[in-house]
Write a structure and sequence with these properties.
The protein is α/β, with parallel strands linked by helices. Helices cover 34% and strands 25% of the residues. The chain folds into 3 domains: 3-117, no CATH class; 137-291 and 329-343, 3-Layer(aba) Sandwich (Rossmann fold), CATH 3.40.50; 346-447, 2-Layer Sandwich (GMP Synthetase, Chain A, domain 3). The structure holds 2-succinylbenzoate (OSB). 2-succinylbenzoate is lined by residues 167-168, 171, 207-209, 233-236, 257, 259-261, 265-266, 429.
Length: 461
């Protein structure tokens, strides 16, 4: 029997989907599987775009596609017109599930997929192009196995508030489905309106991105609720020290993770007991992965059984090896520390600066709600350190923040320009859009040339 079907049968009479209908899941998955297997006997398996909104339907369709060995592309029904055009053009699907009003053109370029059972998971979006990492049932299984071995668990219960088409949500489903654990699926906004808080979550894992953790910790009943979880996995974007300290203060069993779509979620994770004992890093490497660090640049190289095979439609030339933009180190006890992204590195007056350090110092002043530090091209400095921030009070001046920073940071690490905004752009995965901020800041400084001139007068004059 095909692997996905074996797990499906095991769950047949089991109420594992909490607050949803587990029987529906079984019924839909088997029905769609039968339809797909009939189609596949006549010709090569159809390429499927999966954009169902309804979670049970999404997951049942996903399992059916995997069991029938049809290439399946996980998609966000809420992508904009441009993104959908780009995706439909790239994929040239035979079947689209979950979108209305789609006019399917007959496939023109039919990229051959050199592997069966390919599972395409989107990465990127909102800034830049959507790419699909090519995974397989086996790479996702390797991730689940590494996870259960690392946490020494037979079953994983997951509380999923992240999107299922994204690797962070999909892997929560996979961990429950494969291990016979329970699964709760609910949108974040229902948690914020206090629904579903009556489930006993003491044997559940929940995955959050940093902005969600921040929102929950601003709300006492939700903070209390969060502190009951067995483990709170945190990932998707770098967290800041103040947020981690707050989580520790409230005794949240936090597990900061490091991983990405290409590695089928986390490959390093700090265990909650280490976190509560004051460790702040990305933890030990999971057993299915290896990380080596380039001596010269500090760049991370990843090897993992869960590694994607390429970006659709291309397989990587160097399989099993993946170099990333992240810079970090492994300490003598084997804990992974991430310093930043090499592409976000700012070089100002010949000094290297990673935004995380400066952002963390600015957050500590308690004068701002949020901040992002970037480098603006500058004739004198090469790049001028620039802080884009949301002030806590409308009358907080940049000078006040600068004054506080002077006790904490060397002079060259204090931003030269300060740009107050009402909002900073984030995507659904909690990743800040630095490209967009860069554009906003450059436009702002062009339109406020006085600011630039004043600055030169006061710094150089
Ligand atoms: O950023 C990504 O692409 C992966 C992020 C991710 O999977 C994740 C996000 C939040 C919490 C836990 C996890 C995880 O690795 O399991």
């Amino acid at each position: 029997m095909e692997q996905p079907l074996k797990y499906l049968e095991q769950l047949k009479n089991h109420d594992w989907l909490i607050s949803k209908n587990s029987q529906d899941f079984y019924k839909i998955a088997t029905e769609i599987y039968l339809q797909l297997s009939q189609l596949s006997t006549q010709e090569k398996p159809p390429k499927i775009i999966l954009a169902e909104r309804e979670p049970v339907r999404f997951l049942a369709s996903f399992i059916a596609a995997c069991a029938a060995k049809c290439p399946v592309f996980l998609c966000n029904p809420d992508w904009g017109k441009d993104e959908w055009e780009q995706v439909l053009d790239l994929v040239q699907p035979d079947i689209v599930w979950g979108l209305d009003n789609i006019n399917l053109q007959p496939s023109i370029t039919n990229y051959p997929l050199p592997i069966t059972n390919a599972i395409m998971i989107p990465t990127g979006g909102s800034s830049g192009k959507i790419k699909f990492a090519i995974h397989t049932w086996e790479t996702l299984m390797a991730s689940v196995q590494g996870f259960t071995e690392y946490f020494q668990l037979n079953t994983v219960n997951s509380f999923c508030i992240l999107p299922l088409y994204h690797v962070s949500g999909l892997m929560q489903f996979m961990r429950s489905f494969i291990t016979g654990g329970k699964l709760v699926i609910t949108p974040f906004k229902e948690i914020e309106s206090y629904q579903l808080l009556n489930i006993n979550v003491s044997d559940f894992f929940i995955s959050l991105v940093p902005t969600q953790l921040q929102r929950l910790l601003q709300n006492p009943p939700l903070t209390q609720w969060l502190s009951q979880f067995q483990t709170v996995l945190l990932g998707g974007a770098p967290a800041w020290d103040e947020l981690l300290e707050k989580a520790k203060f409230y005794q949240i069993r936090l597990a900061p993770t490091y991983g990405m779509t290409e590695t089928a979620s986390q490959i390093a994770t700090l265990k909650p007991d280490d976190f509560l004992h004051g460790k702040i890093n990305s933890g030990h490497i999971l057993p299915h992965a290896q990380i080596t660090i380039d001596n010269l640049t500090g760049n991370l190289h990843i090897q993992a059984k869960s590694l994607a095979l390429g970006y659709y439609p291309q397989l990587w030339k160097n399989p099993g090896n993946f170099s990333v933009d992240d810079i970090g180190f492994l300490d003598p006890e084997g804990y992974l520390h991430i310093i930043g992204r090499s592409s976000n590195k700012i070089i100002t007056g010949g000094e290297n600066i990673y935004p995380a350090e400066i952002e963390s110092a600015i957050r500590k002043t308690n004068l701002i709600i949020d901040v992002c530090v970037i480098g603006i091209p500058d004739k004198y400095w090469g790049q001028a350190l620039t802080a884009i921030y949301i002030p806590k009070h409308p009358n907080t001046s940049a000078l006040e923040i600068e004054t506080q920073l002077k006790n904490q940071l060397s002079k060259f690490k204090i931003p030269k320009y300060w740009i107050p905004l009402e909002n900073l752009p984030y995507n659904a995965q909690g990743k800040i859009n630095r490209q967009q901020i860069q554009q906003i800041a450059e436009d702002f400084l062009v339109n406020n040339t006085n600011l630039k001139n004043d600055f030169y007068r006061c710094r150089l004059g």
